[in-house]
């Protein structure tokens, strides 16, 4: 769905216009197109239709792929809930029946936003910021939405937005180091840090990651944000489907490092990010960006309904995430539904809230002492479903660092066993795997290394 600012004025106009629509099925599409994702009860309330009528047409639209039901994150309540979204087919259906949203409603709302940034524009002109950059920053503010204007508007905030623009991933030619920036524009670093914190913590769609002392920013609505999120969702779904089809594979076997590397490689090919180039003395951002992508994968996997314990198993096998500064603590917080920007971005999180693992994952009993897999309290079999170890007589691990090391080592060993080699029998050329007991072709015993 396009990003619109749904103000009370816009909502009032939409609810007034919907009364003119006689076709009940189109009322529902009109609401979802103009007010965005809605709960079932909202659709009943706004459409002025009965519960049974709404239910009937919801089922109809779902069957025709005009709408879809999925998880929506409600920023005002900081919760996740099921809502209905209009699809491209649904939007086309509205157009075919000559019922479309009133563009003037949204142009009016956007014009209201633009009028609120006139002071910002005047300030930028005073310090000789190019008109093209002023336009880009204004567009970024519109993408941030109304919550941006809850922040006190002043010179330091405007300079912070300009600093973020100069250090955006998409404006690599404008890199402006923080100390030099503060010196040039006569502003204290403390003030820039303060407003960076305010902007990141206000659910405006900003992301930040670090490369040493350098900071880089992007927005979920810019080309990098949209491309990254789309690749994460598409690749995550593909991996889950393949794991479900494959024999002897579980969701917890998902390779987080490889998935992040594949996504980052595609973004490199699209030239949205860049890697290190020693010959041209260019420092890359591939490695820190990969670590941020791993966090985003965990977050979206959680929203897709993958169990927390499976996500813990997936993350434990990451060689990157748990070795990052504060990676262990921020991992707990993400899996425990954290929306804090310190957890969701790749930044120093020395002040991040400490979450005790066994408190956040209440069913967690410990970790397998052989392969590091999570063991739940309601698992009464005392048998590890990954490596087959019987826990009877063994003490489960409670240290996540030790569990992570075991998990990574077991994964490497398992991948080695899955490699195909030629049967040791010189008279048999059959391809076998090291984890087999005998060659299925000549029945030669396979000796484990």
Descriptive key words:
mainly alpha, Arc Repressor Mutant, subunit A, Cyclin A, domain 1, two-stranded antiparallel ribbon, two-stranded antiparallel sheet
How would you describe what is shown here?
The chain is mainly alpha-helical and 449 residues long. It folds into 5 domains: 8-107, Arc Repressor Mutant, subunit A (Orthogonal Bundle); 117-204, Cyclin A, domain 1 (Orthogonal Bundle); 223-362, no CATH class; 374-418, no CATH class; 420-449, no CATH class. The chain has helices at residues 8-18, 24-35, 40-47, 51-63, 88-96, 103-116, 118-126, 131-144, 155-166, 178-185, 189-200, 223-245, 256-269, 286-303, 308-316, 327-335, 341-344, 357-360, 400-418; strands spanning 67-74, 79-86, 206-211, 214-219, 364-367, 374-376, 420-422, 431-433. A two-stranded antiparallel ribbon has the order 1-2. Strands 3-4 form a two-stranded antiparallel ribbon. A hairpin with an 8-residue loop joins strand 7 and strand 8. The chain is globular. Residues 346-360 have low confidence and may be disordered.
């Amino acid at each position: 769905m396009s990003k619109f600012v749904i103000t009370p004025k816009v909502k009032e106009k939409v609810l007034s216009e919907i009364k003119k629509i006689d076709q009940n099925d189109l009322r529902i599409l009109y609401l979802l197109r103009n007010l965005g994702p809605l709960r079932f009860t909202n659709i009943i309330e706004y459409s002025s239709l009965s519960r049974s009528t709404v239910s009937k047409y919801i089922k109809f639209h779902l069957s025709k792929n005009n709408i879809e039901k999925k998880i929506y994150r409600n920023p005002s309540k900081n919760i996740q809930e099921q809502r209905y979204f209009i699809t491209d087919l649904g939007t086309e259906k509205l157009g075919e029946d000559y019922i479309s949203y009133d563009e003037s409603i949204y142009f009016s709302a956007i014009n209201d936003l633009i009028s609120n940034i006139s002071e910002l524009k005047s300030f930028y002109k005073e310090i000789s910021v190019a008109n093209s950059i002023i336009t880009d920053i204004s567009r970024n503010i519109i993408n941030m939405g109304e919550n941006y204007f809850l922040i006190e508007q002043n010179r330091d905030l405007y300079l912070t937005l300009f600093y973020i623009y100069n250090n955006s991933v998409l404006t690599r030619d404008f890199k402006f180091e923080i100390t030099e920036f503060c010196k040039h524009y006569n502003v204290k670093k403390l003030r820039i840090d303060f407003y960076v914190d305010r902007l990141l913590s206000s659910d405006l769609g900003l992301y930040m990651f670090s490369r040493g002392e350098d900071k880089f920013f992007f927005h979920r609505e810019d080309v990098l944000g949209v491309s990254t999120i789309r690749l994460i969702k598409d690749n995550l779904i593909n991996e889950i489907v393949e794991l479900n089809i494959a024999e002897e594979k579980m969701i917890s076997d998902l390779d987080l490092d490889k998935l992040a590397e594949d996504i980052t490689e595609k973004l490199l090919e699209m030239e949205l990010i860049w890697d290190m180039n020693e010959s041209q003395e260019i420092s890359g951002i591939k490695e820190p960006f990969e670590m941020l992508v791993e966090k985003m994968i965990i977050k979206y996997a959680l929203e897709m309904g993958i169990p927390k314990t499976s996500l813990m198993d997936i993350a434990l096998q990451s060689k990157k995430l748990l070795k990052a500064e504060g990676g262990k603590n921020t991992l707990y917080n993400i899996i425990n539904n954290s929306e804090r920007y310190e957890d969701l971005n790749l930044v120093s999180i020395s002040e991040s809230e400490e979450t005790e693992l066994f408190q956040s994952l209440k069913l967690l009993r410990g970790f397998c002492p052989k392969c590091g897999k999570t063991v739940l309290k309601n698992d009464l079999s005392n048998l590890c479903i990954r490596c087959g170890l019987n826990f009877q007589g063994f003490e489960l691990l409670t240290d996540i660092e030790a569990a992570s090391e075991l998990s990574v080592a077991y994964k490497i060993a398992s991948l080695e066993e899955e490699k195909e080699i030629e049967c040791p029998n010189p008279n048999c050329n059959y391809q076998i795997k090291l984890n087999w007991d005998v060659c299925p072709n000549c029945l030669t015993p396979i000796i484990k290394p």
